[in-house]
Amino acid sequence: MSVPAVTRPSSSVATRHNVVITGRPDGPPIVFAHGFGCDQDMWRGVVPAFTDDHRVVLFDHIGAGSSDSSAWDPVRHAGFDGYAADILAICEELDLQEVTLVAHSVSTMMAAIAAIAQPGRFRQLVLVAPSPWYLADPADGYDGGFTPEDLADLLESLDSNYFAWSESLAPVIMGTPDQPELGDQLTASFCRADPDIARRLMRTAFTTDFRPLLPQVGVPTVVLQCRDDAMAPLSVGDHVADRIPDATLVRLEAIGHCPHVSAPAETAAVIRAHLLGTP
């Protein structure tokens, strides 16, 4: 099998987000949006499953990876709307239509916002380990997995020493104690991110309730839920799939919060099955 060509568009939007395109130039587009503290490199185990027949688009959120951190705007990026607008700007710049948008963790709610804003641009969303709200809401029968005290401690630790926080939390997020090298990989990714931008992004993620957005998503959606996910209990995946009108829930065998890293073959196989309409 030949190695697909890799291109790096030179427009301002593409440069800001370190956009990388690979795969079949005339294939249907599939865009991968990474989660908190990560960058596009975290998709490297999944991408080869799509390069033969898809136009694969990778990018870094502002403040992550090799993006241009100077493009971070305190108003635009104060909430997830700005990050969703960044995703839409990339799609518009590359003239992407009928997009399959695969998003992980915090990017799942950015993807939901983007799809609500421009539903005609997207063929499908794939939400990997989503969480629209991290606290409990007994009145709604919802449990996001964290107590207010948990979140207060986590945010205090995040603010006091981002790098120490990254080193301690990354293995917990990865959730694969039998593969400590994966936790080390996530720690290294956290440490490549701009710490000030990362802190603000995480605070927004943990203090914003995105549940009201879910019924507004009018794009077919696949929700991938892992076992033993420290960031998103199984009931959260159920909630997301129940509230999005046209959603399918898939429970993976993978454990932890990053199945595209810990179980890339399973993750890619499930995504491909739904792309081909044969789940």
UniProtKB/TrEMBL annotation:
The record places domain AB hydrolase-1 at: 28-142
Establish whether keyword Hydrolase is in the entry.
yes
UniProt key word Hydrolase: yes
> One Pfam annotation, family name?
Abhydrolase_1
Q: Which UniProt keywords apply?
A: Hydrolase
The entry lists its GO molecular-function terms as:
hydrolase activity
**Family statement:** Belongs to the AB hydrolase superfamily.
Q: What is this protein called?
A: Alpha/beta hydrolase
